[in-house]
Amino acid sequence: MGSLTVSGMAEATGRARHRGRRRLVRRAGGWTAVLVLAVGVAGGGVAAHRAGLDLGDVVGDVRRAPGAGAPPAAAAAPALATPPPAVAPAGPAPRILRYPEQGTGTFRTATATGRVAGRGGELMRYRVAVERGIDEVDVERFGREVAVVLADPKGWTADGRWRLQRVGPDTPADFTVLLTTPVTRGELCGDPADRYTSCRNGDRVVINVARWARGVPGFGGDLATYRAYVLNHEVGHRLGRGHELCPGQGELAPVMQQQTLGLHGCTPNAWPQVGGELYTGPPGEYDDPIPAED
């Protein structure tokens, strides 16, 4: 897969685009931006300021945020006739994943090749890559997380139509899962105004790090479920699936519903298979507005 630029990828024509949005855009007032580490440079196309995109160039060490230190020791309490009940010490606060609004436009590629998931159907190979600038995400760990979701027995390989295998940078692949900054997401999805959602554009499954870090309000803070949903949704587009609607009030949302933008009476669901069968809703999509920012 030769050396490419973000602009070259973004300018590809005749390729289908799928994303969790339609045409309306609104501001989501009052949302905090505490996870953003740096704000991207305003003005101008991303491609005009970036080095070539080389999905075969792997960087080894990735910087991580320093771990939270141990809490200070509490002052000794005065002696009591009856000791109070024991209270477990509070653990360190969860580490917040920080990321820049705009990365470098070049990518680190996970190196491992995994087993084939699924027992029948067409084999689809995929790579996994993380944009440089998202320094708190280890590309190898992200690759493992993607592979676990895509190999899950509730996933796309369950019904014998598809087999999926993760490959490294030197093996031909049918698509690439890219974790990108919000600005680069807009470029690769062909929709610079949308820095909120993820998308599938041709052979690129573009996962917006803002959603990977924060999820969406409808999932009630269940980040693991949201991450599985967004991967299965966008990979589902690569496998030829279109958008679907909520089948009924209180029902599970089909994985191909645009759950990032709204549930429309359904409850969150991350998986194509429910109860051992492919779970679908009526074809179609809602004209939901997109938050302009987090």
Topology readout:
Blueprint: H1 6-10, E1 17-19, E2 25-26, E3 36-38, E4 99-100, E5 107-109, E6 122-131, H2 139-150, E7 162-166, E8 175-180, H3 182-188, E9 199-201, E10 204-208, H4 209-214, H5 223-238, E11 273-274, E12 277-278, E13 290-291
Parallel strand pairs: 2-13, 3-4, 6-7, 6-8, 8-10
Antiparallel strand pairs: 1-9, 5-6, 9-10, 11-12
Mean pLDDT: 78
Elements, N to C (H/E): HEEEEEEHEEHEEHHEEE
Distance between the termini: 34 Å
Helix tally equals 5
Q: Low-confidence segments, ≥5 residues, pLDDT <50?
A: 1-5, 11-16, 20-89
Cα-atom Rg, whole angstroms?
21 Å
Number of domains: 1
Main sheet: strands, sense, barrel? 7 strands, mixed
Helical content class: 10-25%
The proportion of strand residues reads 15-25%
Kindly state the number of beta strands. Answer: 13
Output the structural class. alpha/beta
**Shape summary:** globular
